[in-house]
Amino acid sequence: MGIASLLSVAAYVGLFGESVQPWATFIALGAALITSPLIAWATGGRYYLARPANPVIGHTCCICGKDYESEDLAHCPAYQEQICSLCCSLDARCDDLCKPHARLGAQWGGLLQRLLPGSARPYLDAGLGHYLLLMVGILPVLGLLIGLLYYQEVLALPAGDLARLDALRASFLKMSAGLLLIAGVVAWWLVLTHKSRQVAQEESNRQTELLMREIESHRRTDELLQKAKETADQANQAKSRYISAISHELRTPLNSILGYAQILDADAEIPENRRQAVNVIRRSGDHLLSLIEGTLDIARIEGGKLTLDLRPLDFPGFAQEIVAMFEPQARGKGISFDYQQIGELPASVRTDPRRLRQILINLLGNAVKFTASGGVVLRLKYQREIAQFEIEDSGPGIPPEELERIFEPFSRGSAAQASASSGAAGGTGLGLTIAKMLTDLMGGEMKVESRPGQGSLFQVRLYLPQIHNVQAASPRIRRVGYVGVRQRLLIVDNEATDREFLVNLLEPLGFQLAQAASGQECLDQIPRFKPHLICMDLAMPGMDGWETIRRLREGGLSDAEIVIISANAFDQGNDNEVGMRAEDFITKPVRIDDLLSWIGQRLKLEWVSADVAPEPASAPPPTEWRTPPPDALRALRAQIELGYPRGISGKLEDIAADPAHREFVEVMRRLAKQFQFDSMQEIIRKALAEHPHAT
């Protein structure tokens, strides 16, 4: 453009003759078209916008977001993406990173560095080179302008008027000096402005680069978090599958163990010495089942699959039931159990009785288990539909370092380890974890305060809304049959022992039974047997229970009621395509009362019961506790201090001669068998304190 301008101006003013003067415009156009490719050829194209073609991955400009042909896109080193030619021409923030030596300032600086000595280079970097470049550009233009004006003024003067010519020359010299000074100041101001803008642009670029690094770091962090989340989800799913599988495998044999234990426990012909063995089997099975349920509850709560079964609850009766459960246990250990009711209790509240009972049993069970002397206090206060339970014990307490992890799964503190080492029954460390999770799930709050050597205090606050005009719950009955037409029941289970258990349970009640070991066998028996009710297992080889139910419903083979009896506890309450509700699902081991109640409700049976009598509202009063005389107590204490089991047994035999001391002797014998000598001495100390003249 400069070459074309110079040639066209020279032709226009007649430097090339009058014949060339009319062609000044065409000279400018032709010179530009010719010199542009010549300069490109001479410089190798390194100062031009056009660059060698690169393989283009996309056809979208990173600035305007428009699609272009690949020939109109190039890779921009500033944005590290494809950019179109228009955005590349208009963008000023990149500072021409694609051609760093193409700017006139860069070329001028390079020329000055080659011409000037090395000592002058720091001044060039400080802005001197830029200032000289501006002055080199401004001075010719300014001189040309003043020269043209001077030439015009000289032409206007009369010929031979030297005085006016000298005056004109002096005026133009003064004007040139003034304009030169102004041009120098303006040029330096432009240099400073450019330098300031350059510094600001560099700072902006630096901040942008830091921001881009941070964005990239966040992106990588997000990718790592997503991978960690996926890994955690996969591990959680694997854990749930493992828990579900192991639960199924454990529930299957437990169904037979607890089922037959319930049948034998209800049999009046069982001898008394064998009934104790049956009770041991049943209690051991219930303990194992509680461990399985605890593990499943944790998995359900963590997976968000545990739902509450809200129903009316006889609150005073429930409290008395809890007291009646733990008062004999505490008395058997030689510690006191004090139930303190603060204020009035509503007759009925709405809650999940099973989960509320589970919370209190876990807390009270730990309090009684770990308290060797003193006692346990249960306080219950109900105010403004908020129930507050306080369980306070005089046990060993919890060290401060253990309070932080007391609610973690499988966390067993020093008190539990000391109890296990002394021969007492241990636990799994899930009780407090489940109690805390259930409290949070029910919208409540649990707090704990403890001091080593002084005991612990657990506080549970729950919202239990009061319910008015609720009918009393029907008493439990022992069913021996039913009135009406004989009902046909089909038992579908691949485990022969589980089928035999249900047969032994239901056949004496008057039901007509048939068995099927698979889903296909069930479908084959339906037309012949025409059952009124089907007991369906889920996990069966070949056609499982869900597929069997689906074919029964879709094919219209039977309209019989269906109850699912399965060890797959995780399937209960989940959505399913066959429309089975949570109340139609009974998990193994089967609770006989729950199964019979469901059958009676669905088949509308009128049960025939034996020894029908409502359960007492509260626990029966305990046998009167009478302590032996002081002499007998002191003699017994002497044997305890010696740690002589036979001597202790002999003294207890002497005390048992009086029937009034029977309960005292039973408690002391139980403690002696467990070598709980400290508890025995505490009981004797309290008994001697009751006698005013005993020491």
What topology does this entry show?
Elements (H helix, E strand, L loop, with lengths): L1 H11 L11 H20 L29 E4 L4 E4 H6 L13 H12 L5 H36 L5 H104 L6 H32 L7 E4 H18 L3 E7 L5 E4 L1 H18 L4 E9 L2 E8 L6 H4 L10 H8 L9 H11 L3 E7 L3 E9 L14 E6 L4 E5 L3 H11 L5 E5 L2 H11 L3 E4 L8 H11 L5 E6 L18 E3 L4 H12 L2 E5 L19 H13 L2 H11 L6 H12 L3 H14 L5
- The CATH topology of one domain, please? Rossmann fold
Name the CATH homologous superfamily of one domain.
Response regulator
Any guess at the CATH architecture of one domain? Answer: 3-Layer(aba) Sandwich
Tell me the radius of gyration: 49 Å
Walkthrough of the structure:
With 695 residues, this protein is of the alpha/beta class. Among the domains are: 1-44, no CATH class; 307-341 and 350-378 and 395-439, Histidine kinase-like ATPase, C-terminal domain (Heat Shock Protein 90), CATH 3.30.565.10; 478-610, 3-Layer(aba) Sandwich (Rossmann fold); 630-690, no CATH class. The chain is built from 20 helices and 16 strands. The chain has helices at 2-12, 24-43, 85-90, 104-115, 121-156, 162-265, 272-303, 315-332, 353-370, 400-403, 414-421, 431-441, 496-506, 519-529, 545-555, 592-603, 630-642, 645-655, 662-673, 677-690, and strands at residues 73-76, 81-84, 311-314, 336-342, 348-351, 375-383, 386-393, 445-451, 455-463, 478-483, 488-492, 512-516, 533-536, 561-566, 585-587, 606-610. A five-stranded mixed sheet has the order 4-6-7-9-8, with helices on one face. Strands 12-11-13-14-15 form a five-stranded parallel sheet, with helices on both faces. Strands 1-2 form a two-stranded antiparallel sheet. Strand 11, helix 13 and strand 12 form a beta-alpha-beta unit. Helix 9 runs antiparallel to helix 12, helix 14 (519-529) runs parallel beside helix 15 and helix 17 (630-642) runs antiparallel to helix 18 (645-655).
